[in-house]
Amino acid sequence: MLYASLKSIASYVPPTCISNADFEKLVDTNDEWIVERTGIKTRYFALPSQQASDLAYEAGKLALQRAGLEASDIDAVIVSTLSGDYFAMPSTACLAAFKLGIENKPAFDISAACSGFIYLLSLAKSFIESQTYKNVLIIGAEKISSILDFSDRNTCVLFGDGAGACVIGASDDPKAAILDVHTGANGRYEKLLYTPRPCTGFMVPSKQDLENQSVVRMEGKEVFKIAVKTLTQNVNEMLQKHALSAGDIAYFIPHQANLRIINAVGKQLCFNDEQIVLTVQKYSNTSAASIPMAMNDVYEANGLKYGDLMLLDAFGGGFTWGSALVHFGGK
Question: Where is the active site (predicted)?
Fold first, then answer.
C-alpha cells in the first residue's frame, strides 16, 4: 500500500531577535506582563529586505537537502501564509518556487491562518496517495511583522516571523505514514481575529478605508476560550478514532500561540511535559510556520526519530482548525 510520508523537516529563523524589553520603547508593556499572559520572551523579525518568499526559500532549500532531493524532483509547491509578498498576486509559492529553481510546476498559496500547516498536510497527503505527484514541498512562511500595529500592545507583542518546510513523498511503510489529517472551519467568528482590507470602496478610498489598515486585529479573550475548547475536542476525536491514548504519542506539537492555551489543552489531554513541544517562548506566534518550526527544533535536538508518532494541533483566524497524526518518515 502507498502512504504519504513526511520525508524531511526544516525551518528558517530570521536574523533579528526582538526581546520583550524592546517593546517597552513602543507601547505600555513590560517583560513581566508579556511573559505572564503569553509565555513569550523573544521573537524574530525579518530584515526589511526580506519577504515571506525569502523565508520560504531558506526553509525549502534545507528541506530539499535533508530529503536528498533536487529542485527537479519536486512536483508541486504549496505555501500557507497570511503575510505574503503581495496583496493578491503573484502567490508567495510562485516566488519561492522560482527562487528554489522549481519552474513550470504547480505552485500556489492557501489561506488558513495559523492552521495553515495542517491544511498543507491534508492537501499533500491527497496528492501523494492519489499518485498525482511523487514529491510535494509544503511551506508555512510568515513575515507577520509587516502587518502588525505597533501601537496595539495586545497584538504586536504576540507575533514573529519565520518559515518551516517539509517534503512529502511516498512510502510503503505504515510506520512512516501520515496517518490521518482532520481540518475544519467556521466563518461565524470572522471578526474575532482578522486583518481588514484597506480599501473596499469604489475608486476613491474613504477616510474610514484609509484608517482601516491591513494589520492584525484580535479579541484575545474570546479567541482564548474558543481555541482551548476546539483544540481539545479536535484532539480527543482524533485519538478516539484511532483507538490511541496520550501515551501512544511521542510528541504533541500544538500551534505555538500562547503558553496558557498550550498548558490548558495539554492538561486536559493528559500529555506530560516531555511530550509537549514548546517554542512559543523563543519564536512567539509565527502562524502557519509555527508547527513546522517547532517540529524542526525537536529534529535538530536529535529528539525526532524515524517512525515517531507526532500529534499536531492548530487553531487560527477564520476560525480554522486542524489536527494530524504523523509518523516521522525522514532520516
Answer: 114, 255, 285
Q: What is the pTM of this model?
A: 0.92
Cell 522560482 -> residue: 98
Q: How far, CA to CA in Å, does 311 sit from each of 26, 137, 160, 186, 304? A: 38, 20, 23, 22, 13
Boundaries of every domain in the chain: 1-330
> For the structural domain made of 1-330, what CATH number should be given?
3.40.47.10
In the chain, what's the furthest Cα-to-Cα distance?
60
The C-alpha cell that represents 137 in the structure block: 514541498
Helix or strand or coil: residue 291?
Answer: helix
Q: What is the pLDDT of residues 215-267, one digit of tens each?
A: 666 555 666 666 677 777 888 888 999 999 989 999 999 999 889 888 888 88
Active site residues: 114, 255, 285
Phi, psi (degrees; rounded to nearest 5) at 247: -65, -15
Write the DSSP string, 219-242: -HHHHHHHHHHHHHHHHHHHHHHT
